[in-house]
Write a structure and sequence with these properties.
By secondary structure, the protein is mainly α. It has one domain. It is about 80% helix and about 0% strand. Helix 1 packs across helix 4 and helix 3 packs across helix 4.
């Protein structure tokens, strides 16, 4: 179960950025905003985009893998491959959206 959760979390970390990036492109928004917001979780006083993006990568990975382990512990094993792939992606996207939303409202993620 642990290996499946890890694989699912890693897969989720890769694919979870696609829906929000696509939505941002459709809205003609800043596709780097979410990455900067996640970087602010580790470096709240930093304002340089490159530094925030590098800092945001492990936060994004931790959210995806963490949610995968939580879901692995709670969900039944039936249909596991599909659930393990989709659920962490959705959970990570929702977590990132909440962080981005709260930071954007305060203006803290401005480049």
């Amino acid at each position: 179960m642990r290996r499946r959760a890890l694989v699912a979390g890693l897969a989720g970390s890769v694919v979870s950025a696609f829906p929000s990036t696509l939505w941002t492109l459709i809205r003609r928004g800043d596709v780097l905003e979410g990455g900067r917001a996640l970087g602010l979780v580790l470096l709240p006083n930093q304002r340089r985009t490159v530094v925030l993006l590098v800092a945001g990568a492990p936060v994004h990975l931790a959210l995806s893998v963490g949610w995968a382990y939580v879901l692995a512990a709670v969900l039944p094993p039936r249909g596991a491959p599909r659930r393990f792939f989709l659920s962490p992606s959705a959970a990570a996207a929702m977590s990132a959206a909440r962080v981005t939303s709260s930071i954007t409202e305060t203006g803290a993620a401005s480049p």
